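dumping this here before i forget
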Amino acid sequence: MELTPAEKLLKEVNLSLTRQRLAVLELFLKEEHPMTPHEVRETLDDQERFDQVTIYRVLEALVKTRILTQVPSTDRKSYYCLAERLHAFHAHLYCSLCRRMLCVESPVSVGPERGKELHIVLSGTCTQCDQEVPDATI
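structure:
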């Protein structure tokens, strides 16, 4: 039987294949944008109930094994995103209107010598909010 991408990733880093780890990882592979632990739980609650402690433990294990990375933010929330090795180098935009964290193309190009992790977090408005709010002309 062929393994799913989530199962392959967990096996690569020697994590056991639990239904909680698989559910969280499959969610990140599908959504491909940063999420808070609360957003992860809310999304997964549609399929199956996981308590918040379990979500935090799974996220911690996935960060330790460099499948996910924790994205710094100024809104005092923890955001998690697929690690660069799975999602290519990119920046994050925190939209000040809708308060979502999004993956965006990096405004900076970096070489392979930059180190293990580099986080670029921009603040502003996302494309969706920018289209909904008309320009104010004086």
